[in-house]
Amino acid sequence: MNSDLETEVLQLHAEICAGLADPSRIMILYELSSNPRNVTELAAGLKMPQPMVSRHLKVLRDRGMVVAERQGAVVLYTLADRRLIQALDLLRAVLRDGLARRAALAGAIA
What we know:
By secondary structure, the chain is mainly α. The protein has one domain (3-80): Winged helix-like DNA-binding domain superfamily/Winged helix DNA-binding domain (Arc Repressor Mutant, subunit A). It has 5 helices and 2 strands. It has helices at 3-19, 23-32, 39-46, 50-62, 83-109, and strands at 66-71, 74-79. A hairpin with a 2-residue loop joins strand 1 (66-71) and strand 2. Helix 3 crosses helix 4. The N and C termini lie far apart (50 Å).
């Protein structure tokens, strides 16, 4: 792969990872995994202030992780790609396995 193209791909990859770098954004993605929602529904479901949810949605939109669709006076948000949830679930499995290894190590030391 050409060096400039590889650099650009790595930058895009880093931007997606940055979009996942906040627990609130991860919660929003999981909340959207079942149904499209508007910002008011997301705020209520996540027990977060609506302006905070709006800021996080902007980050997710800018990174192409959610899609906003106007339906009358309401904007509905949906996942741009269901594989985001698969990726998050895979990361959770890696985390779980790492925690299990640490617990086993702590048990062996004790």
